[in-house]
Amino acid sequence: MTIYYKMLCIILLTSSLLNCADSKKSLPIDFSGIARSDLLQYYSKKPEHLDFVENNQGQGQILCSSLYKVPGKYASVIEKYFIDNCAMSNLVFVCCGWENENGFSGEFRTIEYIEKTETYLYYSVSMYSDESIINDREKWNEIPYFYVLAEISEL
After folding, report:
1. pLDDT reported for residue 35
2. Are 70 and 138 in contact (CB under 8 A)?
3. How confident is the model at residue 22 (pLDDT cuts 50, 70, 90)?
4. What is the pLDDT of residues 55-81, one digit of tens each?
5. Distances in Å between the alpha carbon of 44 and those of 19, 53, 70, 107, 119?
6. 3-state secondary structure string across 49-86
7. Which residues contact residue 42 at a Cβ distance below 8 angstroms, ignoring those fewer than 6 apart?
8. Per-domain boundaries in the chain
9. Is the pLDDT reported for residue 144 higher than 90?
10. SS3 of the chain
11. Spatial distance between the Cα atoms of 94 and 100, rounded to a whole number of angstroms
């Protein structure tokens, strides 16, 4: 486990413990407008071939999320983009579909601390496929779509 992931785990654990003590904090950010927009386009750079599907107002710690799809023939390009630019782990075949290795998502923006509410926001990006029997990367073009999920979460 790299030092980066160890530090992230410590931050997540510490933040969770602090939030348990004061879970009624309200964020000074209105996510209602953002929750109807494309998060990667709003906060980052969205790569070519990645099509916006929908946005959802979150529940619990997830404040809002955007879902995207990419045709299988472009999935390796999108995977490489998020590995190179967001430190996302590569995709591996698990059971009956493709997902991030060890569940490690990437960050499309750095963790942000909001001093007024003592809250951390985490901007994550992950990638996966629907169920598939295709377990060979060379055949990704046979998978109709892969999906990318971008989320903003309160830690």
Report:
1. 53
2. no
3. very low
4. 988 788 888 899 999 999 999 999 999
5. 27, 17, 18, 10, 21
6. CCEEEEEEECCCCEEEEEEEEEEHHHHHHHHHHHHHHH
7. 34
8. 24-154
9. yes
10. CCHHHHHHHHHHHHHHHHHHHCCCCCCCCCCCCHHHCCHHHHHCCCCCCCEEEEEEECCCCEEEEEEEEEEHHHHHHHHHHHHHHHCCCCEEEECCEEEEHHHCCEEEEEEEEECCCCEEEEEEEEEEECCCCCCCHHHHHHCCEEEEEEEEEEC
11. 9
* Alpha-carbon 76 to chain mean position: 17
Say which amino acid occupies 81.
Y
- pLDDT tens per residue, range 106-143: 998 877 777 776 778 899 999 999 999 999 999 999 99
